[in-house]
Amino acid sequence: MMIMGTLMSESRSVFVLIKSEEESSLGRWNPSVDLASVTCSLYPEHQRAGSRLTPLSVDLPKSMVERDFAWTWYSECLIRPSLGEKLKNSGLTGFYTRKAHVTHKGVAFPNGFDELFAVGWGGIADPRSGVRLIESCPACGMLSYSGVTNWNQLVDWNQWDGSDIFMVWPLPRFIFMTERGAQILTASRLTGAQIIAVTELDPQEDLSPGRLSYWLPAEIISKLKISPEIA
Q1: What is the dihedral of CA 29, 113, 207, 134, to 10 degrees?
Q2: Among 39, 55, 136, 141, which has the highest number of CB atoms less than 10 A from its own CB?
């Protein structure tokens, strides 16, 4: 695993797990992957794909099946099951894994991967980051937000649940982590991923993340007491 940027001594620096720079090809969904379809009674243009209805099934190029981490075109993160157990045993918090079906050129890959999810809670993005709710459709629940212009102000630490790995809404595809989380992952010298400081990320354009229920289990959302407007 590569780490870019400096792990600063500030305990509340924020980092993010992303694919390695040298990875030029990403996994593609197999035909068995299915998504819910969302329609809108008020605005036909709001018709869109909803939550994923099936476990992840993805075909990976050979360069990726040999790595500790693998990634898809839709930014799903895959991890070796043995590595997931190792990270849990290290005390890393805020993530869970779910079995994924992985193939290479249509042939099942025997050693397997799990899908990695950030389920720690970093709260709703601080408005000082530039992220604000632009639209909330009363009919279909579509949410639209402005993008991130200031990554330094992304996390409102009053909302953070203390997890090493966490999600910040409305950026559910990003696997954020604390300095402690970054240090644990970096120490494992893993392949197929890198850690960078969020300040190295480019500004984000407008965001359409779906609903929080697409990304977090219902029991976690209920504990967080999230507004029904986004859940």
Answers
A1: 110
A2: 141
The pLDDT value recorded for residue 22 is 63
Specify the residue for token string 């990270």: 87
Q: What is the mean pLDDT of each run of 10 residues along the chain (231 residues)?
A: 45 88 80 96 95 94 86 94 92 95 89 93 97 96 97 96 97 96 88 93 94 90 86 86
d(CA 103, CA 83): 19
pTM above 0.85, yes or no: yes
Whole-number Cα distances in Å, 166 to 35, 143, 192 = 24, 21, 20
